């Protein structure tokens, strides 16, 4: 039988880290190494860097899950945050496991844009929509990520006759509607796009491909 101190150590959460996409921010951790740790309950706290007191996250207090949504708690996107997690099992509490410092504006991943393709006989019109944050305007619509960063759209064309993997950059800029002209009728083309953030030199993943035959 594990002694209390051993149990405390063996159920302590591991690898506490923030994951964030478009400011949708969750805290993830892994259970301790003891086999019993899979039955542990978890308690999450958070604070802004420099504050002395930790805040309890009520919805993540005594949970069996290994993930906790902190989107609302990290909404001041320029502030650096910390979070910490402890585990409890059979009346024994582990010590706290601390996350690294997390600053949403600097560290959130930008999602891919939405792409819509309309074709005529020799051109493709591409409509682009930036990903949206979880934060809402007063009227209720979600605020696009372009409000928080200087973001560029990068649009690539794939000529399926030539090579499925060969993407050619045909546009970089802020226009939401672009036209690609002088294409060959009867050829299958696919469009993919991503968001690019010059200030941090970050790119999003590619959008799903939208294909059309002229």
Topology summary:
Layout: H1 4-10, E1 14-21, E2 24-30, E3 41-48, E4 55-63, E5 67-69, E6 81-89, E7 92-93, E8 97-98, H2 104-107, E9 114-119, E10 124-129, E11 132-136, E12 142-144, E13 152-159, E14 168-173, E15 177-180, E16 188-197, E17 202-203, E18 210-213
Antiparallel strand pairs: 1-2, 2-5, 3-4, 3-6, 6-7, 6-8, 9-10, 10-15, 11-12, 13-14, 13-16, 16-17, 16-18
Brief account:
The chain is mainly β and 214 residues long.
Q: How would you describe this structure to a colleague?
A:
This protein is mainly beta and 214 residues long. It has two domains: 4-106, Sandwich (Immunoglobulin-like), CATH 2.60.40; 114-213, Immunoglobulin-like. It is built from two helices and 18 strands. The strands form five sheets. Strands 3, 4, 6, 7 and 8 form a five-stranded antiparallel sheet that branches. Strands 13, 14, 16, 17 and 18 form a five-stranded antiparallel sheet that branches. Strands 1-2-5 form a three-stranded antiparallel sheet, with no helix packed on it. The protein is elongated and about 75 Å long. The chain starts with a helix and ends with a strand.
Strand content: over 45%
- Our count of helices gives 2
The counted number of beta strands is 18
User: Which fold name corresponds to the CATH topology of the largest domain?
Assistant: Immunoglobulin-like
Query: What is the average per-residue confidence, as pLDDT, rounded to a whole number?
Result: 93
The dominant shape is elongated
Name the CATH homologous superfamily of the largest domain: Immunoglobulins
Keywords: Disulfide bond, Receptor, Repeat, Secreted, Signal
Organism: Cardinalis cardinalis (Northern cardinal)
GO molecular function, one term: cytokine receptor activity
Subcellular location: Secreted
């Amino acid at each position: 039988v594990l002694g209390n101190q051993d149990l405390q150590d063996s159920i302590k959460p591991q690898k506490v880290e923030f994951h964030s996409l478009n400011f949708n921010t969750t805290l993830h951790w892994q259970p301790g190494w003891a086999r019993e740790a899979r039955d542990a309950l978890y308690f999450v706290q958070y604070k802004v860097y420099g504050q002395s007191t930790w805040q309890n996250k009520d919805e993540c207090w005594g949970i069996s899950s290994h993930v906790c949504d902190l989107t609302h708690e990290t909404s001041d996107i320029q502030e650096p945050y910390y979070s910490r997690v402890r585990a409890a099992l059979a009346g024994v509490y582990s010590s706290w496991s601390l996350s690294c410092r997390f600053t949403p504006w600097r560290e959130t991943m930008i999602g891919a844009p939405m792409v819509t393709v309309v074709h005529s006989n020799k051109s493709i019109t591409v409509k682009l929509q930036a990903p949206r944050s979880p934060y809402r305007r007063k009227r209720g619509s979600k605020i696009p990520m372009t409000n928080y960063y200087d973001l560029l759209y990068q649009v690539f064309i794939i000529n399926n006759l030539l090579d499925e993997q060969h993407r050619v950059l045909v546009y970089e800029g802020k226009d939401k509607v672009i036209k690609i002209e002088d294409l060959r009728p009867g050829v299958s083309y696919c469009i993919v796009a991503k968001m690019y953030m010059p200030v941090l030199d970050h790119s999003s993943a590619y959008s799903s491909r939208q294909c059309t035959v002229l």
